[in-house]
């Protein structure tokens, strides 16, 4: 009994550590009367068996900020999804219990309810599924199973009463995930200058942002993957693409051999561990599907509120929006699995500035102060851009080589299609 009480005290103290964000105004559920918010779609993507109610959302918010869901009390959902950082953590890749570093950048929770799948590789379909995996991942929240997380809170009267009121039963893992998902579905962030512009306010965008919007739809080729419609309101096609982010550092063929040998795509926990804990992370969607076309492919991220969610890409390798556009401007990094839509753009410096101005206009008014501060930070780095390569962007020099075989020959995608090269599957 003494040991149990001591553990509760330790966990309570750890859960209150200052490095876990506290809920503030930006953490509150967002109103649904925002300009640009698709109300019909919002209702359609809310599961019938997990209706959004005030009591359930309040329970989910409390759980979202509670470190006691982690094995040592040091990490909460909000650790990697801090409202004051646009519901991300501002790190290249996230850090879990015992300061363990993962291989993926934390995606924003904002507007995540509209995603067809969750995580960079789409290994979870619903927010309820997504909520469970970080809790049991060894380098994130580190619990051996959901029951262990539930055990840390089950005897706390406040939680016991809340679960009883909301679900009519004692705390359990499935209801814990339902509450977290319900809270996350309230984090909708539209009401941006661009939304007001689309609604008819011509003055909502300045001249630079309007030029950027034209480039976005034209020479920038952004609409190919970041189109917007009533069914895709977040500027994402919800598909997976190899845009050459990590090809310069990884041999995809060798990684794919390892992936097929080690990962059973039907085992969500094993895929989750491989995605975060090993160099197999760079295989992206391939870990889930084992389709050759998915090697190095990652989900198209939302562009809404993108200004306030740096660093960018699945590995957090790009610090500013200028860096991101530089990457696309030169045609990415060549590899045999590069998406066919990735080509040189040949944009000028002023055109890149206009595209950044447009992307900044996608920031919700609720995050305007954070956006202003972040734009100033990124603009100060505008002259220090490791991805900038004007000669490559304008076609004045050959792009870098793709993957090569053991004798220096090009390694075509067919290499992976031959079962004998990837473990017989």
Can you offer a commentary on this structure?
This protein is mainly α and 425 residues long. It folds into 2 domains: 2-184, Cytochrome Bc1 Complex, Chain D, domain 2 (Orthogonal Bundle); 193-393, Cytochrome c-like domain (Cytochrome Bc1 Complex, Chain D, domain 2). Helix content is 39%, strand content 1%. It has 19 helices and 2 strands. The chain has helices at residues 2-15, 39-44, 54-64, 77-80, 127-136, 146-153, 157-167, 173-184, 193-198, 207-217, 223-226, 252-262, 268-277, 286-289, 321-329, 349-360, 368-380, 390-393, 414-417; strands at residues 240-241, 298-299. It has a two-stranded antiparallel ribbon with strand order 1-2. Helix 10 crosses helix 16 (349-360) and helix 15 (321-329) packs across helix 16.
Q: What's the domain count?
A: 2
Q: What is the multimeric organization of the chains shown?
A: single chain
> How widely separated are the two ends?
52 Å
Shape: globular
H/E element string?
HHHHHHHHHHHEHHHEHHHHH
Please report the number of helical segments.
19
Strand adjacency order, main sheet: 1-2
Percent strand:
under 5%
Structural class: mainly alpha
Q: How is the biggest beta sheet arranged?
A: 2 strands, antiparallel
Specify the CATH class of the largest domain. Answer: Mainly Alpha
Remind me, CATH topology of the largest domain?
Cytochrome Bc1 Complex, Chain D, domain 2
């Amino acid at each position: 009994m003494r040991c149990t009480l001591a553990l509760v005290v330790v966990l309570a103290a750890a859960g209150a550590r200052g490095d876990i964000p506290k809920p503030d105004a930006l953490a509150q559920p967002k109103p649904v009367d925002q300009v640009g918010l698709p109300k019909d779609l919002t209702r359609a993507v809310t599961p019938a068996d997990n209706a959004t109610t005030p009591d359930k959302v309040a329970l989910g918010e409390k759980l979202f900020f509670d470190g006691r869901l982690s094995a040592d009390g040091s990490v909460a959902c909000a650790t990697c999804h801090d409202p004051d950082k646009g519901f991300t953590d501002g790190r290249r890749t996230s850090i879990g219990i015992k300061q363990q570093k993962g291989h993926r950048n934390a995606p924003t929770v904002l507007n995540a309810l509209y995603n067809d799948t969750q995580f960079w590789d789409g290994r979870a379909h619903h927010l309820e599924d997504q909520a469970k995996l970080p809790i049991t991942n060894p380098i994130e929240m580190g619990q051996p199973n959901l029951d262990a997380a539930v055990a840390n809170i089950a005897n706390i009267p406040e939680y016991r009463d809340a679960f009883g009121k909301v679900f009519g039963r004692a705390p359990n893992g499935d209801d814990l995930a339902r509450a977290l998902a319900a809270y996350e579905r309230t984090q909708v962030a539209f009401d941006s200058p661009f939304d007001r512009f689309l609604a008819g306010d011509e003055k909502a965008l300045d001249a630079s942002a309007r030029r950027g919007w034209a480039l976005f739809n034209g020479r920038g080729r952004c609409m190919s993957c970041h189109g917007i419609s009533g069914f895709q309101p977040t500027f994402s096609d919800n598909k997976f693409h190899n845009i050459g982010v990590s090809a310069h550092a990884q041999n995809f063929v060798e990684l794919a051999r390892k992936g097929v040998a080690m990962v059973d795509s039907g085992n969500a926990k094993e895929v989750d561990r491989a995605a975060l804990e090993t160099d197999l992370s760079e295989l992206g969607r391939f870990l889930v599907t084992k389709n050759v076309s998915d090697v190095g492919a990652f989900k198209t991220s939302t562009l809404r509120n993108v200004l306030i969610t740096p660093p960018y890409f699945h590995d957090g390798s790009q610090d500013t929006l200028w860096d991101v556009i530089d990457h696309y401007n030169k045609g990415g990094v060549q590899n045999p699995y590069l998406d066919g839509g990735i080509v040189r753009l040949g944009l000028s410096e002023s055109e890149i500035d206009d595209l950044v101005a447009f992307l900044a206009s996608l920031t919700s008014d609720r995050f305007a102060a954070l956006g202003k501060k972040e734009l100033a930070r990124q603009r100060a780095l505008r002259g220090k851009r490791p991805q900038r390569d004007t000669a490559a962007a304008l076609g004045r020099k050959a792009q870098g080589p793709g993957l090569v075989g053991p004798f220096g020959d090009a390694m075509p995608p067919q290499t992976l299609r031959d079962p004998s090269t990837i473990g017989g599957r």
